[in-house]
UniProtKB/TrEMBL annotation:
Residues 19-133 form the VanZ-like domain. Coiled coil: none annotated. Pfam families: VanZ (PF04892). It comes from the Bacteria. Keywords: Membrane, Transmembrane, Transmembrane helix. The gene is vanZ. This is VanZ family protein. The chain crosses the membrane at residues 61-78, 85-104, 116-133. NCBIfam families: vanZ_1. Signal peptide: none annotated. InterPro entries: VanZ-like.
């Protein structure tokens, strides 16, 4: 009697594509678990580096830009059409809403609708840049095929 190869011990490739999203969400959760006092130690340094950003926390843009790219990896870059792009943005905003709710339980932190807006802008910026990159690659590829 033959036994099947133990291919079940290796996770399927599509599941591995979602690993970056899980890691980015874990990092966002860990950062949002920090108290306001802990965040005040490095946020002023960043705002000193960029003086025009005193009333603005760019971390939301960067974090949700990264989460958006990670979700796009999960869906597969080549399949990032308009509906999947909108799904990526909605997933990011939904995760941002849960993150803001989570912050309501962290000392010296509070939920902020403006942070959720910044999360959505960061996610949308990533999707738009990915679409532009994909479009440029497709266009460059079609030019390579048209040459004789």
């Amino acid at each position: 009697m033959q036994t099947q190869a133990t291919s079940s011990s290796k996770p399927p490739r599509p599941l591995l594509r979602w690993l970056p999203a899980i890691l980015v969400m874990a990092a966002i959760f860990a950062l949002s678990s920090r108290t306001g006092g802990q965040l005040d130690t490095w946020l002023p340094w960043f705002q000193d580096l960029f003086p025009g950003l005193t009333s603005f926390n760019p971390v939301h843009y960067f974090a949700y830009f990264g989460l958006s790219v990670a979700f796009a990896i999960g869906f597969g870059f080549s399949r990032l059409n308009v509906s999947r792009g909108l799904a990526v943005i909605l997933l990011c905003v939904a995760y941002g809403a849960t993150d803001e709710w989570h912050q309501s339980f962290v000392p010296l932190r509070s939920p902020d609708v403006n942070d959720l807006l910044h999360d959505g802008i960061g996610a949308a910026a990533a999707v738009i840049l990915l679409w532009l990159w994909r479009f440029a690659r497709m266009r460059r590829g079609s030019r390579n095929y048209s040459r004789s």
